[in-house]
Design goal:
31 strands; Lipocalin; nine-stranded antiparallel beta sheet; Jelly Rolls; about 425 residues; 3 domains; mainly beta
């Protein structure tokens, strides 16, 4: 009886440790959050990320304006959350103290500084990913490559489809979790599991042989090998040698590219007037005009397109003066910086950078006063940017909004907006090509 009691106690203790570990690994506060602050009846978007380091929670924050910065420790006691941030404001750089309550995928509370008190809410940022479409896969095995075609349909939480190599195979057990696509193909006793990170229109992952339906380990291995040889003879190469087949049963890396369909290009700027655009900010400070096919401002309010877009390709031509500064906001949330940055080291706050988020691989800027181009492709939260014909950002993830965003509703379409409140700037061709629905 005593030994049973000790055993039971130890089992309960181990169970508690395992549960505590699982809870720590999935702490509700950890992750990215889209924050909305209400000031004088108007909403201001912000962003926060919380990560766990050395047993403590630490955060990064993007205020209503400015860039992303570390905010140090985030206090969590039960459902109570506290942290501090600074924000450029008319009163200088106040240090706000945020307090709030965490409930599932939402937080809410107040922030205070001296006699200022504002309400804030936050929603967990979960990228919306749709894998529907046809994907061209390339399986990499050493120096050899094998091409396959993957077709997927996604409705709600269900994913179906087929894989075509040398034969057409239906998918089994297809899932999409935390941005990772997983599925199986092949016979029940000899399957291949595909797993890949979904990065906009790109898949990056691995495929590995996975025997199923084992009896004993030895019998399962024999059945798996026989099934694998049979499956490979159907789907890959009926004439392959045993050595080649053995290699094919090992894990292999693969990449995939979605066959993206595009709509008709749309000229957002017609070269004659500001039709299709509207002021953003104080109307009395709106000084945008059109002269000789150029859209310009000496400085003042910003300007925003009336139309909104989801996924698209954007071509922009701009001219920045000496010491000039502007920006192109994609969906009204993600700023590609425009600045007089010729000859400087690349940085996220200089020309070509996604402001405070992504540093370009190189500085492709021309001298001030020369016309320059951006060609940006935005699919979901993955962005590619060519600056003056040079690839400077290659399908990189945008972690969240940048300062000055219109809102933090990242699942929704948004406009193109141009920054005019930093001084003189000129634009001419602005052409957007939306993804076909």
């Amino acid at each position: 009886m005593h030994r049973f009691s000790v055993t039971l106690t130890l089992a309960m203790a181990v169970t508690c440790v395992v549960l505590a570990s699982a809870q720590a690994d999935t702490a509700p506060i950890v992750g990215r959050w889209n924050v909305t602050i209400t000031v004088d009846g108007k909403t201001r978007p912000s962003w926060m990320e919380v990560r766990e380091e050395d047993g403590k929670y630490r955060g990064r924050f993007c205020s209503e304006v400015g860039g992303v910065y570390d905010i140090g420790e985030v206090g969590v006691e039960g459902d109570r959350v506290t942290f501090q941030s600074v924000v450029v404001d008319v009163d200088g750089r106040p240090s706000y103290t945020y307090t709030g309550t965490l409930k599932g995928d939402a937080m809410s509370g107040t922030r205070e500084w001296q006699d200022h008190k504002h309400e804030w809410t936050a929603k967990r940022s979960v990228p919306r990913i749709d894998v529907t479409g046809t994907w061209d896969l390339v399986i990499h095995r050493g120096e050899t490559e094998q091409k396959q075609v993957l077709t997927l349909q996604q409705k709600g939480g269900e994913i179906t489809g087929k894989l075509v190599a040398r034969a057409e195979l239906p998918l089994r057990d297809a899932t999409l979790k935390d941005g990772v696509l997983s599925f199986m193909v092949g016979e029940e006793n000899a399957s291949r599991r595909y797993e890949a990170k979904v990065k906009g229109d790109v898949l990056e992952g691995s495929v590995r042989f996975q025997p199923r339906g084992r009896g004993t380990a030895e019998r399962g291995e024999r059945r798996g090998r026989a099934g694998a040889d049979h499956q490979e003879s159907v789907t890959e190469d009926a004439q392959a040698t045993p050595q080649t087949r053995q290699g094919r049963r090992g894990p292999a890396e693969f990449t995939g590219q979605r066959q993206r369909q595009w709509g008709e290009p749309i000229a957002l700027f017609n070269g004659k007037d500001l039709e299709g655009w509207k002021p953003l900010g104080k109307e009395g400070d709106f000084r945008w005009t059109v002269e000789d096919g150029v859209m310009m401002t000496p400085g003042g309010a910003n300007i925003v397109s009336e139309r909104k877009f989801a996924d698209f390709k954007l071509h922009v031509e701009f001219r920045v003066p000496k010491h000039g500064n502007s920006g192109v906001y994609l969906r009204g949330r993600y700023e590609i910086q425009i600045e007089d940055s010729f000859g400087q080291e690349p940085a996220s706050g200089r020309c070509g950078g996604l402001y405070s988020r992504i540093t370009p691989s190189t500085n492709a800027s021309k001298p001030a006063g020369e016309w320059q181009t951006y060609d940006a492709t935005l699919i979901g939260q993955y962005i590619t940017v060519d600056h003056n014909g040079v690839r400077i950002i290659d399908n990189q993830e945008i972690e969240g909004i940048t300062g000055g965003a219109l809102d933090s509703n990242e699942h929704e379409p948004g406009p193109i907006y141009l920054q005019g409140d930093h001084g003189k700037i000129e634009y001419r061709k602005i052409i957007i090509t939306p993804a076909a629905e």
